[in-house]
Amino acid sequence: MKYFAVVLVFVASASFAQTTPLIIEDFKPSSLNQPQQEYPQVNSQGYARFKILAPAADSVRVSLGLGGRGGTKLKKGEDGFWTGTTAGPLDEGFHYYNLKIDGGKFNDPGAMNFYGSVRWESGIEIPAHDQDFYALKDVPHGKVEQILFPSKSTNTSRRAFVYTPPGYEKSKQKYPVLYLQHGWGEDETAWSNQGRANLIMDNLIAEGKIKPFLIVMTYGMTNEIKFGGLRDFKVDAFQTVLVDELIPYIDSNFRTISDQAHRAMAGLSMGGMETKMITLNKPEVFSHYGLLSGGTYKPEDIKDKSKVKLIFLSCGSKERPDGVKSAVEELKAAGFMAVSYISEGTAHEFQTWRRSLYQLAPLLFK
Amino acid sequence: MKYFAVVLVFVASASFAQTTPLIIEDFKPSSLNQPQQEYPQVNSQGYARFKILAPAADSVRVSLGLGGRGGTKLKKGEDGFWTGTTAGPLDEGFHYYNLKIDGGKFNDPGAMNFYGSVRWESGIEIPAHDQDFYALKDVPHGKVEQILFPSKSTNTSRRAFVYTPPGYEKSKQKYPVLYLQHGWGEDETAWSNQGRANLIMDNLIAEGKIKPFLIVMTYGMTNEIKFGGLRDFKVDAFQTVLVDELIPYIDSNFRTISDQAHRAMAGLSMGGMETKMITLNKPEVFSHYGLLSGGTYKPEDIKDKSKVKLIFLSCGSKERPDGVKSAVEELKAAGFMAVSYISEGTAHEFQTWRRSLYQLAPLLFK
């Protein structure tokens, strides 16, 4: 359970420049800014620059970007704006962050918000060399459908999002389904907002690289949202919602191929832990398993090898790539169809998981 | 065009108590708080109480709740938390707000965010005596589907949300469509987030009060998002997106009855202005018109009376109810099917529009 520790730390990853860095002055507004907002900005090297209006504040700090444990300290100008640039370039992709203003935690009014760390955080996007695979392109687009499904076990209507591929509405085809879980402190919005799962699928489908399937994303912290509560995490409550309530609802309200062979589960970080627990508890329900920065399976974890069609394990190169690779070698040696993927130059963050989904999708339901 | 002025002012409505009020200490967290957040709170009288951590701040103020032009001033306690209660009860329903901290504008970290005033604002919900009609109940739920539709005129894929009623997926029925617009500074998320359009529809359908139809919600500030820009507002760019791009996309990707008789347009505030302009420009496209706090039609505005099946005009009792009522009388006298609705005790805010949708829906497509 070593990988949990990583989840509980806010990861502000950056490469620290040894000498005074030459910062290229080609900063542009982050693609995740609110409409008309000029800041935060990002340059071609991956530095981020912040600008916050708070004329009477004593201190403003951004949780991102090294410069010591506290992130990036901003300096006040005569115009009342606090500005500052990260001490080094940030990793490619999406980062959560927040502001510390006079001792309180607030969001950057320039940035859009994304749910992580059990709060709506500010988000910033560092352009990536491979961002094309999750870009919004002029291709046919699937839908992200918000559903409210009845849950007797929790006595409420619960929310899920369902990705349906382009043409789903008009076709008569039935589709396999991937149940895809977010990480600790996130919710069912994460995979389509910061993860761009729908655009990754749209692009893969447009290029003919995958057979279309549905993705179902729901809230996985059914019984446990307190900070640090993972130590006592029990998967039962969520497993009941997922397996006994959501899956039957999806199978009766969408055109699915509703058998084990055409049902996959994957998750990132804590969602990987849930995926591992639930797939091992319910081998008759899922045939394809994916843990994204979410641990590993050992061959002896799995009772009936014939039921497992694929095990996909991934993480960022800044996490524990050796653990993932050696686990996959062990699984292969034991006769499993197992695949590892290491995301180069990324840590326990969404760029690792966007890339992991891009690698996983073509392997599913073959 | 008098009603525009109202849009451009942040409306913090409250009834001011003349004497020192007796505040009942039954405060509970607002239903729109982020998970696990105890503040903001609301009591049974409609007072709101705020609590913000900012130990080193010099001043914290909430934009809501009278107490002078600046809203509610909070006071710092020894624990570093700033607290305060509105000077009077707020109107029932949803309110946008923000915090002014040491001269900068930020959101309340306890509350969820809602897009209004061209920014993601904090939101608070004052329980209403009639909140049952937009409550999340144990009834069959429709879906809110996010679509990305191609728009040549703006050279991008644009987002819209489509409400489909319960059972849409499995039925073979075709449905009428209401195109429903947000107000100035809001976007396509407003009607389902703060407006609860999907829950209003689910509940009306469950009670057998309406014939189900689709609702399509897209972004209406295509060419104009600058503050104050309404003076020069031209509807052409949005009309092209709506009529020439979105409607054909909806009609070819959803099971719609794609004729004028089964197509309605309505909008709140600026969305009402757009509705008026576009329905008058395109009488062959829409047959049912709704302006919610969004102005009025005069009989002479309409060239071909036979094309108009319904005109619905509404506003809050704290707006200009007389204007709405007299406009409807004039329209009726001229032989139009016209209906007015006044929301009691509400102003230019979402409770007026939730109620207006609830009143409008049963009148559509009869």
Number of discrete domains of chain A:
2
Structural class of chain A: alpha+beta
Helix-strand pattern of chain A: HEEEEEEEEEEEEEEEHHEHEHEEHEH
Q: In the CATH scheme, what's the topology name of the largest domain in chain A?
A: Rossmann fold
Return residue spans of chain A where pLDDT drops below 50 for at least 5 consecutive residues: 1-18
* Envelope shape of chain A: globular
Mean pLDDT of chain A: 92
- Give the strand tally of chain A: 20
Largest interface: chains, residues each = A-B, 48 and 48 residues
Strand content of chain A: 25-35%
Radius of gyration of chain A: 21 Å
Q: Topology, pairings included?
A:
Two copies of one chain form a homodimer.
Chain A: H1 4-7, E1 28-29, E2 41-42, E3 48-53, E4 60-62, E5 72-73, E6 75-76, E7 81-85, E8 93-97, E9 99-101, E10 104-106, E11 113-116, E12 119-126, E13 143-151, E14 156-164, E15 177-181, H2 190-193, H3 197-206, E16 214-218, H4 236-253, E17 263-268, H5 270-281, E18 288-292, E19 310-316, H6 321-333, E20 338-343, H7 350-360
